[in-house]
Design goal:
Layout (H helix, E strand, L loop, with lengths): L3 E8 L6 H13 L4 E6 L14 H12 L5 E4 L11 H11 L3 E8 H4 L8 H7 L1 E5 L20 H4 L2 E4 L4 E4 L4 E5 L8 H9 L10 H10 L5
Parallel strand pairs: 1-2, 1-4, 2-3, 4-5, 5-8
Antiparallel strand pairs: 6-7, 7-8
Helix pairs in contact: 2-8, 3-5
Bound molecules: adenosine-5'-triphosphate and magnesium ion.
């Protein structure tokens, strides 16, 4: 049996929405991944102060949204550890548990722009491939100039080179970086939480079962 190629899309999923889901689906197809795992953050290192809904609710909504979506599944490994979750530790732990798998981190452009602020980011970029997607209002381009056009810090730009033989960027470690221009869905969890708080409709922004869960549990009202 060959190596399984697994995408890892991290997030707080508070709540999961069609922006997350469509990104996972399109990257799975475009990059030829066997599966994409949606990795639920216990507490995002960037959201420690603002807080999130209980992990049980966020996980339940993720499960509801992914029901009947072959190739996409929730991953709860970060819920097993105390404190904020660092992606570098998550990837190492998953690699240990799944020696037959090779991992690709799936990130929206908003997240990739902050990558140099992530815990042990150079080690992270050496431990997995990277798939960076459009995140409205910003769109990514493919090709040789794609990285340079983003105006990232020099330290990040210099960590990569362009490999014309494979038409991808490569980290110093040899790991791939691919850009994926996706169907642009300008949806965020923040906007959904605000709509609920204001008593407005969230229909067609996320899965119906997720919207029902939010209503039944009274999430985001206060
Ligand atoms: P919040 O508003 O609470 O920050 P969010 O909608 O930004 O929530 P996150 O959990 O912060 O969702 O994002 C997790 C990952 O999903 C990030 O890599 C982010 O870039 C990506 N993502 C979120 N929304 C979209 C979208 N509409 N299109 C593409 N990627 C998205
Ligand atoms: Mg976000």
């Amino acid at each position: 049996m060959g190596t399984r190629r697994i995408g890892l899309q991290g997030g707080s999923f508070d709540p999961v929405h069609f922006g997350h889901l469509r990104a996972a689906e399109e990257v799975r197809e475009r990059a030829g991944l066997d599966e994409v795992w949606l990795v639920l953050a216990r507490v995002s290192p960037f959201k420690v102060r603002s807080g999130t809904s209980p992990a049980e609710d966020r996980l339940r909504m993720l499960e509801l949204a992914l029901e009947g979506a072959p190739g996409l599944r929730p991953c709860t490994v970060e819920l097993e550890r105390e404190g904020p979750s660092f992606t570098v530790d998550t990837v190492a732990e998953l690699a240990r548990r799944h020696p037959d798998a090779s991992f690709t981190l799936v990130l929206g452009l908003d997240a990739f722009r902050e990558i140099h602020g992530w815990h042990r980011w150079t080690e992270l970029l050496s431990s997995c491939d990277l798939a960076v997607t459009s995140r409205p209002p910003e769109r990514v381009e493919e090709g040789a100039g794609a990285l340079a056009s983003l105006g990232l810090p020099i330290a990040v730009q210099e960590a990569f080179w362009y490999d014309p033989t494979q038409a991808c960027h490569r980290h110093r470690s040899g790991r791939r970086l691919d850009f994926h221009p996706l169907t642009a869905l300008d949806i965020s969890s923040t906007a959904i939480r605000r709509l609920v708080r204001e008593g407005r409709s969230i229909r067609f922004l996320t899965d119906r079962a997720v919207a029902d869960w939010i209503a039944t549990r009274g999430l985001y009202r206060a």
